[in-house]
Amino acid sequence: MRFIRLILLVLTLSAIPAEAIEPFVIKDIRVEGIQRTEAGTVFSYLPVKVGDTMTDEKAAQAIRALFATGFFRDVALEVENGVLVVVVQERPSVAQIDFAGMREFDKEQVLKALRQIGLAEGRIFDKGLLDRAEQELKRQYLSRGMYSVNVSTTVTPLERNRVAVNFSIEEGEVSKIRQISIIGASAFRESELLGLFVLRTPGLLTWFSKHDQYSRQKLSADLETLRSHYLDRGHLEFSIDSTQVSITPDKKDIYITISITEGPKYAVSDIKVAGEKLIPEEEVRKLIKVKPGDTFSRALLTESTKLIGDRLGNDGYAFANVNAIPETDKQKRQVAFTFFIDPGRRVYVRRINIAGNNRTRDEVIRREMRQLEGAWFSGDKVNLSRRRIDKLGYFTEVNIETPAVPGATDQVDVNVSVVEKPTGVVLLGAGFGSGDGVILSGSVAQQNIFGSGKHVSAQINSSKINTTYALSYTDPYFTVDGVSQGFDVYLREVDAVGSGLGFYQTKTVGGTIRLGVPISEIDTVNYGLGYEDTKITTFPESPLLYKDYVATFGDQNQTLLGSIGWARDGRDSLIYPTSGTLHKAHTEIGLPGGTLKYYKASYQYQRYFPVTRQYTVMVNGEIGYGDGYGGKPLPFFRNFFAGGVSSVRGYKAFTVGPKDSNGDPRGGSRRLVGNAELLFPFPGLEKDRSVRMSAFVDAGMVGDTYSPGEFRYSTGVGVLWVSPLGPLKISVALPIADEPGDRKQPFQFTIGGVF
Questions:
Q1: Residues 185 and 151 in one domain
Q2: Is residue 517 situated within a structural domain?
Q3: Cys bridge to 459: 4, 222, 443, 626, which one at CB 3.0-4.6 A?
Q4: Structural domain of residue 286, as residue ranges?
């Protein structure tokens, strides 16, 4: 309306004869009608000032300039004895914005969104913005399946040329998907195809996941999943003919009908390689996953082109283009592919740019980079760099992009962007079981102190069984080539009596120095040397086993402790692993020179198998063996233990294994633990990498021999959430075939608070 009025005003002014307004010299300028706007603001927009000669053209310019500010509903110019009088009528301002009937959205979030489009308290009221806000709010409701929503707005005038804006919302009921039909499917059962969809009819968990609410984006993703399912199983000519989404008149039920043409199943008849062959054809063919005689699969075809492109990328050809051109024989239902290879120009890295590290120093990230500036580009080195940065554990996201340098055909930049997470953690651990109450422990750690990448931790454990005070420090880059150095100082008191785990107490004071030497990108050898002084206290109720040990070897022992370990971490991520393996081997020895002479060796193997994009299987196995030497046994307080959230869930910590004469767990010199978990996204949060669920089976035993009869088993579900307060791990486990005397603890959790 403002624009139309301005056009009419200009046309009117242009139609007035020159004699209608006699030019005059402006003696003064007066503004009338303003309530909120300062007079100086009006003067600043006027194209004339005192002393200028006023003409028809300047009058038109003045009116256009004041209308363009958006502050005024009407503008008029008058002349009184050489004084230019500017008469304005201000547009009202928004005094308040209220919502009635809104339950689906948070009021503050909606107000924030409205402020971004220009509708907010204190701003000039614009009917166009109000209409836009009303339509956007309605669209947000529709995106949540609330198709019966009704949004209306009321504008109430207030004193001092202000208005109150009220959004009246009738949300109605959420529309649910009542039926999804696929017409034309014969090669696969309709139920099998619908099982691939995210959208579904109401079920047990859809109240939480909301997958029973229609979404155009979700339907598009489901249709692409359906297309991939057919194309990966030979149906080269598969097509989706139509998609119909209908809603009942009461807007409560939605029906989706998908019409498809499957087409015949094709087999691969031949594979050819053409183009510029910078790598031997034999090597290229090994990278091609589709073979003559196989059923056509688009997934394998895409993987093949990616593998060839990645292989060329390792030699510096970052922009290699690989296309698989099909030749179909519809009569024989066969298809042949020719892989055309265009490597492009070989490129090198001009610059590595790092962004997002507000606390972490650049050098901490750069020392993990295996792709160097000025070197030929390598896709493998870029990927390895990303994995190494991710494994630091300082970031929730690590992304690397390799854009071409503008104006250069043989250069790329490597842009590393990270999203930092809090690395200072206060960890609290707890478990609960009938008759056992709550067990608490805690530690304080900073994995990235002052952004230097160095680790410092102070542990204060006040559980029923352990009281520990420990200080640890680690410099992961003690030398420039990645040799780590650290130390530990600790006081550890074990009160087995107070926790009902046995009649003995130990008090250990010690310290250790450590070195870690990397021998490959994923392999590290760790060395340690330390000293411990252990005081043992027994009681009249203590088993004879403990009393005999103290009588023979004394109640105070000194240990010169040596250790060596090896770790190979080939997992793709530290926070959210989906593939790769982890190996850990560790041996500790009570060296000659101390009163304790023993050794303990352990090995852990962990592997992740990606099943689909969302599901991962993890298997974990651990074995431990210990004994004494020099005529001395393995000290009973050095025994292996099992049970608890880190080994066999569902059983109280340290209680799996043989019992002493009082029926308390005493541990053993042998240990076996096995875990199998199916990891998957939390329902409704499939794209959130901070939360994950698992269904698991645990098994473990402790004893003086590896006896199958000593195994304990459990199964259950767990949740791991990297929450704003720190990592939260919950498990609910059911012991299987437990024996009398076993101490069960079905619910266990650990929670961390960041600082």
A1: no
A2: yes
A3: 443
A4: 267-342
CB contact at 8 A, 411 and 350: yes
Which structure tokens are listed for 570?
A: 């080939």
Coil, helix or strand at residue 519: coil
**Residue 607 corresponds to which tokens in the numbers above?**
């592997």
d(CA 68, CA 62): 10
Assigned token pair, 222 = 């489901």
* Residue 667: count of CB within 10 angstroms of its CB: 26
Q: What is the rounded CA–CA span in Å between residue 670 and residue 388?
A: 35
- Residue at 346: amino acid letter: R
Q: Both ends of the chain: CA-CA distance in Å?
A: 56
d(CA 191, CA 181): 10
- On whether both 489 and 625 belong to a single domain, the answer is yes
pLDDT tens digits, residue range 164-205?
999 999 888 888 899 999 999 999 999 999 999 999 999 877
Rounded Cα distance between 283 and 272, Å, is 13
- Residue indicated by tokens 């080195």: 381
Is the overall model pTM greater than 0.70, yes or no?
no
162 located within any domain: yes
pLDDT for res 426: 63
Q: Is residue 368 part of a domain?
A: yes
Q: What does the alpha-carbon distance between residue 634 and residue 636 come to, in Å, rounded to a whole number?
A: 6
Q: Any idea what DSSP says for residue 449? A: G
Q: What is the DSSP letter of 631?
A: T
Does the structure show a pLDDT above 90 at 505?
Answer: no
Domain identity same for 77 and 136: no
The residue type found at 186 is S
Q: Which residues have C-beta within 8 Å of that of residue 314, sequence separation ≥ 6?
A: 378, 379, 380, 381
Q: Is the domain of 181 the same as that of 159? A: no
Find the helix packing angle between 379-390 and 298-314, rounded to 10°.
100
Final residue before a domain boundary, out of 420, 440, 459? 420
Final residue of a structural domain among 261, 287, 319: 261
Distances (CA, A) of 331 to 327, 328, 335: 12, 9, 11
Number of domains in the chain: 6
Lookup: tokens for 229 = 């399912």
CA–CA distance, 47 with 66 (Å, rounded to integer):
10
pLDDT digits (tens, 9 = 90+) for 712-748: 999 999 998 876 555 778 899 999 878 888 888 898 8
Residue 603 and residue 287: Cα distance in Å, rounded?
A: 35
Measured in whole angstroms, the distance separating CA 298 from the mean position of its chain's CA atoms is: 29
Handedness of CA 647, 648, 654, 659 (dihedral sign): negative
**Is 549 contained in some domain?**
yes
- Residue 504, domain CATH: 2.40.160.50
Give the pLDDT score at 586.
97
* Radius of gyration of the chain, Cα coordinates, nearest whole angstrom: 37
Residues 371 and 336 in one domain: no
- Cα separation, 447 vs 458, in Å, equals 11
212 with 324, same domain: the answer is: no
